[in-house]
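Weekly structure sync, notes
Attendees: PL (lead), two postdocs, one rotation student
Agenda item 3: pending single-chain targets
PL asked that the sequence for the first pending target be pasted directly into the notes so everyone works from the same version. It is reproduced below exactly as submitted, 155 residues in total.
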Amino acid sequence: MISVTLTLATTAPPNAVWAALEAAPRWREVLTDLTSARIEPDGVLRAGAVMRSFAKPDSEAADMAYRVVEARRPRHLAIEAEVGNYRSRAVYAIEKNPDGAKVTLTAEIVPMRGIDRLIVFFARRRYIGKFRAGMLKRARALLTLAERIAQEQDD
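Predicted structure, written out during the meeting:
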């Protein structure tokens, strides 16, 4: 298993962070490797919903479908996905702080085949570095969107 935990601060309050997670059609404003995204069936994050994102051709991103397994607005979101021979899980813990919010993202990838577990074992540092960089890029982008949403709410 590969696991990464990131803790980031934002000036946006927790409700704006949640709004950014739920604003799938706007994700491409900050995640430029996406062509579109949506939350099915009705755009609301709740257990059983599916978050879908579609990657631009020739980008490093992939089309993804994350199943929401837990959603407690605006403090906690847990999502899972299976891609190829890997299973992933991400948990967002959103806390209020004096200047906005603190977001702790814990994400893990689990190879499901024996050969993939061996590859990850021997190339662990490389995989962790790449995984961490990708998670950090996406988390920062969503917090940028949260800050835009907070600003729009203030105007």
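Discussion points:
- The first helix runs from residue 14 to 22.
- Strands lie at 2-10, 34-40, 50-55, 64-72, 76-83, 86-97, 100-111.
Action: rotation student to compare against the earlier draft before next sync.
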